[in-house]
Write a structure and sequence with these properties.
The complex is a heterodimer of chains A (302) and B (234). Chain A has 302 residues and is mainly alpha-helical. Chain A has eleven helices and four strands. In chain A, a hairpin with a 2-residue loop joins strand 2 and strand 3. Chain A starts with a helix and ends in a 14-residue tail after the last helix. Chain B is α/β, with parallel strands linked by helices and 234 residues long. Chain B folds into two domains: 154 residues, Rossmann fold; 64 residues, no CATH class. A six-stranded mixed sheet of chain B has the order 6-7-8-3-9-10, with helices on both faces. A four-stranded antiparallel sheet of chain B has the order 2-1-4-5, covered by helices on one side. In chain B, strand 4 and strand 5 form a beta hairpin. The longest helix of chain B is centred in the last third of the chain and has 16 residues. The chains are: A mainly alpha (302), B alpha/beta (234). At the A-B interface, helix 6 and helix 7 of A face helix 2, strand 6 and helix 3 of B. Bound molecules: adenosine-5'-diphosphate (ADP) and magnesium ion (MG). The site of adenosine-5'-diphosphate has 10 residues of chain B, from helix 1.
Chain lengths: 302, 234
């Protein structure tokens, strides 16, 4: 491999990881946008998506079916479970304390995260689990760089979902109501916008993106573990803050950037220290721009 | 049309409305006057469901609204344009107006109403695609009123529409209030500018420390010595 090919390979790997971070980061940023709350349980929702896919594939028994069907079953199960989980988290944990202090919200979010982590461990087991290899291991050499079918799926679905989200938020009535709720909840009530429902839908939409992220993560890395949700969730949260929490294009850019940084750091510096570089970049960016790359306001609530 | 009966409401442990009763008839403009902190805004918030009602009743077109959530008031024909305007600064003028009609689904009639709002406030038509936050104070007030009308209300609650506006704009706001009323919308108008409010209103109430102390026609209130000394500068 020439140095240039090696670099291109690191970029491809970084974009794959970054696309997954971006999908998860969107959930943090959308929820922060509407309720100014950092949903620490979001990393667990992402992991729950991966587990839902594993169990769905096991129980449905897709071995004879074409891989597209198997993938559909995996994604469908993950999205349904995660959307329900997102709805339940908002309804049961966050809505009752919406008027309460930041500290209450912060503690509730941490508690929800720990609760779900343990639930995942009980249901999915404490050890690594194989993620079923439902997508064929096709690979191509493009200008000296290896690209897999899974990577193409990651890039394609992440790009499609981000485009769909951008359209939803900017052009639809629901999206306008979401942006309005993010700005002034009381004004929205007076306009006849069912704010509770808009907030619930926002949680469900963010959780669905994380569900797809969970399936893609399992496909790409082959094994999953209940505590992956914590680390990947923190990285995606970092990506959201990097881009400017509450800002949707910011979460996309932050996710991709973080994936690239980690991949390049792992390739050229030290694989063991890649997370240190990722969090280091966050610290530097926040020192230079406290609101993140795209953000207008500082995160000021848990 | 609207009947408020012995309304009690407040914040936390504090009660700031003590058995407030008032009425707005169909097609009427009713002014609610009172000093700063008297409870005028609180009265509107209790009517529109932003604040829980502790005792008493709010009846609109024969139905009790006490337990109707705030976001359903627009659908029931009540629009509340709150104190401070609360326009959605990072949305465009068009988007603000569109959300004003959120409770409705009759697209064609919504478009007609938007054109009607543009007729009342031509400057909004010029600034349609601009972010609402970039409008001047007067334009923001027009947007808030226009947005309130997009729900096609039968009763409009207006909280201090002239606050902070230059005298020329104050005139414009009050003449718009008259025009809105001529189109058949009843208004409950909260104002510190008692002089102007009593000129457009048919009737009025004076609220003092959470109690209604006077209720009369606008003409009589404007001639009332205590109203003159307290709210009309003698
Ligand atoms: N959000 C609030 N929390 C606590 N007290 C409030 C709140 N809003 C208003 N008050 C109090 O309620 C009383 C009535 O206020 P308000 O209805 O806003 O008066 P007005 O609109 O007549 O100026 C005042 O004493 C005010 O300090
Ligand atoms: Mg007031």
């Amino acid at each position: 491999m020439t140095p240039l090919e090696l670099f291109a390979q690191q970029l491809a790997n970084g974009l794959t990881l970054g696309a997954i971070y971006a999908l998860i980061a969107l959930g943090y940023t959308m929820v922060y946008g509407v309720v100014q709350l950092i949903n620490f349980a979001h990393g667990e929702v992402f992991m729950a998506g991966a587990y839902a896919a594993v169990f769905a594939v096991l129980f449905v028994g897709v071995s004879g079916a074409p891989w597209g069907v198997a993938l559909g079953v995996a994604v469908g199960a993950a999205v349904i479970l995660c959307a329900a989980l997102g709805w339940a988290i908002e309804r049961l944990a966050y809505r009752p304390i919406r008027q309460a202090s930041r500290l209450n919200a912060f503690i509730t979010a941490i508690g929800m995260s720990l609760f779900l982590q343990n639930a995942l461990m009980l249901i999915g087991g404490a050890t690594d689990r194989q993620f079923p290899a439902i997508v064929p291991a096709l690979r191509w050499e493009v200008a000296g760089v290896t690209v897999t079918l899974i990577q193409l799926l990651v890039w394609g679905s992440a790009a499609a979902m981000m485009a769909a989200l951008q359209w939803l938020v900017m052009a639809t009535r629901l999206g306008k109501a979401m942006r309005a709720t993010a700005q002034d909840l009381t004004a929205c009530l007076l306009l006849g916008i069912p704010v509770d429902r808009i907030i619930a839908v926002t949680f469900m939409a963010g959780s669905s993106l994380a569900a797809v992220g969970g399936v893609l993560f399992g496909l790409q890395y082959g094994t999953i573990n209940f505590h992956d949700g914590y680390l990947i969730g923190m990285k995606a949260f970092t990506a959201a803050v990097l881009g400017g929490i509450g800002n949707i294009p910011g979460a996309m850019a932050g996710g991709l950037l973080l994936g690239l940084i980690e991949s390049l750091a792992a390739g050229y510096l030290s694989a063991q220290w890649k997370s240190v570089f990722a969090f280091g970049v966050l610290v530097i960016v926040l020192l230079w721009r406290p609101t993140g790359l795209f953000g207008e306001r500082v995160a000021d609530r848990a | 049309m609207l009947r408020v009966e012995s309304l009690v409401a407040g914040y936390g442990r504090i009660t700031c409305l003590h058995e407030v009763s008032l009425e707005v008839g169909a097609g009427e403009i009713v002014a609610l006057l009172g000093a700063n902190g008297a409870g005028k805004s609180t009265t509107l918030k209790a009517i529109s469901g932003l604040l829980p009602i502790r005792a008493g009743r709010v009846v609109f077109e024969g139905e009790t609204l006490n337990s109707v959530p705030a976001h359903q008031m627009a659908r029931r024909g009540i629009s509340h344009v709150p104190e401070g305007r609360r326009i959605l600064a990072r949305l465009t003028v068009d988007e603000n107006l569109e959300l004003g009609a959120y409770a409705r689904s009759d697209r064609k009639a919504i478009r007609q109403d938007r054109d009607r709002v543009f007729g009342l406030f031509p400057v909004l038509a010029e600034r349609r695609r601009q972010l609402a936050g970039t409008l001047s104070g007067g334009e923001q007030q027009m947007l808030a009123m226009g947005r309130g009308l997009m729900a096609r209300p039968r009763l409009l609650l207006l909280d201090e529409p002239s606050l902070g506006l230059a005298p020329r704009l104050v005139e414009a706001v009050f003449s718009t209030i008259r025009r809105i009323n001529q189109e058949g919308v009843a208004l409950l108008l909260v104002e510190q500018n008692a002089y102007q409010a009593l000129r457009v209103a048919h009737r009025g109430y004076v609220l003092d420390a959470g109690r209604i102390t006077l209720a009369d026609t606008a003409e009589h209130l404007a001639d009332n010595p205590s109203v003159r000394s307290a709210y009309l500068g003698g």
